[in-house]
Design brief:
mainly alpha, ABC transporter involved in vitamin B12 uptake, BtuC, disordered N terminus
Amino acid sequence: MTDQAVTGAWGGAPFKPALLPGWAEALALAGLSIAAALALSAALIAGLGENPVDALGVLFWGAFGYGEAVGYTLYYATNYIFTGLAVAIAFQCGLFNIGAEGQAYLGGLGVALVILALGEVAWPVAALAGILAGAAFGAVWGVIPGALQAYRGSHVVITTIMFNFIATSLMTWLLVDVLIRPGQQAPESLPFAPSTWLPTIDRMAAWVGAELPPSPANLTVFLALVCCLGYWLFVWHTHWGYGLRTVGGSERAAVYAGISPGRMIVLAMALSGGLAGLVAVNDLLGVHHRLILDFPGGAGFVGIAVALIGRAHPGGIVLAAVLFGALQQGGSELAFEYPGIDADLVVVVQGLVILFAGALENLFRPWLRRRRPGRQG
């Protein structure tokens, strides 16, 4: 491969061939991007009159410094894994799913309807029913924009954004006028039966004689990891995954190979919506134990950043989800310890990470590919 064979992002200037394996270069680029984002964040903190080293230390300690903090970080990361996988599998088909937030919301409706209908059942039954219902409702909410693009030409970016607004309005109406618990004003459903609640990690540890501090991290953490494995097997080891990647690479090539782009688009959006719908299992069956307004809490939008930073690979998505979970949890601790630092600083840090790891992903690539003195080749 010649230098001219690798095109750069700066005015078409060529990049040198990679000196590192693909996975090592991706990790190095992500690490450098995160370091640059944290450096700019430190400058902002210093501009607010606080010690940036101490503040970032508090952020790290608030995310990983004690057992309860780790549990909260894992809880947030679980949601981000689901939405990151949802966005990533759409990427594989050349689609940009902006609607994971709404798909997670509709997944919550499915979980709530099924669990309330079942009543007093054991949590394994409730977990299975909740997984199927959340994935099914999320998949339906993803299939509609997918079918509109595949067969009517509507762009999936526009339709998924609009479906987020539709989902929000629908859920607000249902929780205010239909599903609201009788005799109360708060827009939330009846509580789920205690027997349906998913066991938390600390409770599961107690089963084997271990002791962990209480936290919202629950059995869904393992479901998220299973989904990562399933994503890897599906995308790279099945003919359906091959079809998705072929359509994402070139629809004309897919048609030539006998693959229907329309079917692959609908399949990709169904899987994407189903994965996003699993957020409801973590939040509703694992933590809130009832349907409430705004329970996704922006996880669908964070999932876009997670998929981008994780390069649509399950291993990268897990690492990126933990990073954003740590920022979410550590940022709460930072805002508590430093009243002069607004909690929205975490959003700024997230934005800077996305800026460097996404929009400026090639900023450090020429430096990584620069041959050092004395290196042959």
